Amino acid sequence: MTARTAPVQTFPGKGLGNITLGASLHNVLTRVKSHPQTYPAIDLAYSSSDPLRKPVVLHLPSNGLRLRFDGPDQRLRLIEVLDFSKVDLVYKNQDVLKSGKSAEPTTSPQGPSFRHVYNRLFGPSYPGEYVPPADQSPFGTYVLSYPGIAFSFPLQHSAWSEHCDFVALLSSSAALSATSMAIFQGSSWPETRAKLFTQQPQYPRSSAVVSKARDSFADEIEEFHILGAGKLEVTRRTSAPLQINLGETTPQDLIAEFGPPDAIYRKNDRRISIHRAAGGDPLHLSPSPGRGMDIPDTDHSSNNSVTDDSDEEISPSSVSDPASLPSECFFNYFHHGFDAFISHPTTPGPAFPTSGLADPSPQPSTSQLTVTKIILHGNVPGSYPFNRHRRSRWAIHLDQSGNGLTSESPYDEISSQLRGVWKGAYGNADEERAMQRPMVLNRGWGDSPENSVEFLGGWEETTSKGPRAGGDSHDGGLGNTELFGFPGLLFEVLKNGAVSCLTVY
Predict the structure, then answer these.
(1) Residue 325 CA from chain centroid, whole number
(2) How far apart are the first and last CA of the chain?
(3) Which regions of 334-470 does DSSP assign to beta strands (E)?
(4) What is the maximum span of the chain, computed from C-alpha positions, in angstroms?
């Protein structure tokens, strides 16, 4: 979309070219990064202290575009054209900016005039919204809205009057050409503005799905509901909810519902297994008999496509023959936001004591491969694995009322509630403190495979005391996170308290 490229179609209420409202941040950013000649510069802005609840902004300065995504779901809510000289826009075979514009770049590029917008492009409109200048500037801004699209025109503040005919006013010398254009979902900008980041997007997370038959793509996942006892319910955009039972759901079940995985990796790395020691080791991981507090492998083998001694890539086409799968491997669903660990059945984690569910029964010995872990990726801006997966949203249902924790909850809140739920599972206070000490996980050393696990300092009791580090803290570029375990759940947490990854086992 750089200047002088092929014209880009404008679709009010839908998108700009192949960038569609409702698309996920992962989808858009992956598309943009795959065309470096078209998009030579990419700027991403987000809140370092609250990246999951405040908007994320993707700025493409060489293309004159700014894209705004909501924080919790990371879906595109607003497309803005800030520099009309850097992108050739077309609406129904009409140039949005009249031909004859100078080929030389200007310091303040002009957009289409009101007359061109009103007479040639979109026609009559209801009166718009005037925004007075915030400083001593002689110009305010008049926002002219149509369904799904709006233009901002500088207007001399001295000329503004609520009783003026806005058509005559914007056609006069008191108004300048448009300085920006916005594409959004809604009937007008004033009506949409208050619910811009909260209303349900009309279009799916993948731009490719918009123009193709629904049957050719697996339905997209909206949210994972973690019920405990190895049970997860998956809500989807159009299909009925689906239940995944750890130790029972097969790889073929996943493929039937979610399509073939984007990648498959053999699991060989067992460096974390040293922390499963029992007996006299003070770091034993079973606080009480039968509660299933064993900490699972955290090598998700999905953070890149590099093969090494730890992980071996397998062709996704091999899943058509279950016998060709190794005894342990990962199904990587990057576009769905999760990975599934495929192995021989194991007993899942216990039920939440407040849920009313029964603990799972031990799984019988069988050669049938099943899903034994689900890894849900947060795609948190600023985290080491950012943009490897699209964001996966989840909710933990601790009781039958439906109240619980969500993927946007700060870890301090999650920890507080889970400590209360599991308080009776610990033998004594010392055992409880030992189990809640975080393990430090490094994903950022350049000489380590990106999908491997590196531990720094083992269990660090001091980091669990007092509030977590704020957004301004850093780890020297190592990409360190902390692992916190509860029965059936393993949280990977960033310095700002955001949950980067949740493993359900």
Answers:
(1) 30
(2) 45
(3) 338-343, 370-377, 394-397, 404-406, 439-442, 454-459
(4) 86
> Mapping DSSP to helix (H, G, I), strand (E, B) and coil, where does residue 231 land?
strand
Q: How many CB atoms lie within 10 A of CB 225?
A: 17
CB atoms within 10 A of CB 369: 20
Q: Pairing state of beta strands 338-343 and 370-377?
A: antiparallel
Instruction: With CA atoms as reference, report the closest residue to 294 among 344, 348, 341.
Output: 348
Helix (H, G, I), strand (E, B) or coil at 24: strand
Hey, which of 261-270, 304-313, 365-374, 452-461 has the most confident mean pLDDT? 365-374
Q: What are the tokens at 443?
A: 């994903």
Distance (Å, whole) CA 370 – CA 331: 11
Which positions ≥6 away from 160 have C-beta within 8 Å? 130, 132, 140, 142, 169
* 61: confidence class by pLDDT, cuts 50, 70, 90: very high
**pLDDT tier, 167 (very low <50, low <70, confident <90, very high otherwise):** very high
Residue in 325, 271, 490 with CA at minimum distance from that of residue 396? 490
User: How far is Cα 367 from Cα 332, in angstroms, rounded to an integer?
Assistant: 22
Distance CA 154, CA 152 (A): 7
Query: Which range, of 98-107, 215-224, 264-273, averages the lowest pLDDT?
Result: 98-107
Whether 450 contacts 443, CB under 8 Å: yes
pLDDT tens-digit series, residues 445-458: 443 333 333 333 33
Q: What helix, strand, coil percent values describe the chain, rounded to 5?
A: 20, 30, 55
Encode burial over 45-66: b for 16+ CB neighbours within 10 A, e otherwise: ebbbeebbebbbebbbebbbbb
| Residue of 387, 361, 333, 70 lying closest to 224 (CA atoms) | 333
CA angle 472, 441, 312 (to 5 degrees): 130
Rounded distance between C-alpha atoms, residue 72 and residue 176, angstroms: 38
Quick one: three-class SS letters along 486-505?
A: ECCEEEEECCCCCEEEEEEC
- Identity of residue 156: Q
From the number of C-beta atoms within 10 Å of its C-beta (0-12, 13-18, 19+), residue 472 rates as exposed
Q: How far is CA 407 from CA 71, 233, 287, 299, 379, in A?
A: 11, 15, 26, 21, 11
Region 445-473 average pLDDT = 35
Q: How far apart are CA 99 and CA 92, in angstroms?
A: 15
The total of other beta-carbon atoms located within 10 Å of residue 331's CB is 25
Find out whether 229 and 359 touch, Cβ atoms under 8 Å: yes
Q: Pick from 74, 96, 104: which is nearest to 181 by CA?
A: 96
Residue 25 neighbours by CB distance under 10 Å:
26
The number of residues making up the chain comes to 505
